[in-house]
Amino acid sequence: AQIAPDLENEVNGSALAQTGTNDDLQLEYTRLFDVTSSAAGCSLHSGFYRGPRMSQMEELLRFYNHFGLSLIEGQSELPDHLTTQLEFLQFLSYCEAELIAKGTDADDQRRAKRDFVARYPLRWLPQLQDKFKQAQAMGFYQELVRVLIAALASEYQVLAQLLGEAGLESTSDELLYTQIRT
Question: How far apart are the first and last CA of the chain?
Answer without folding.
Answer: 21
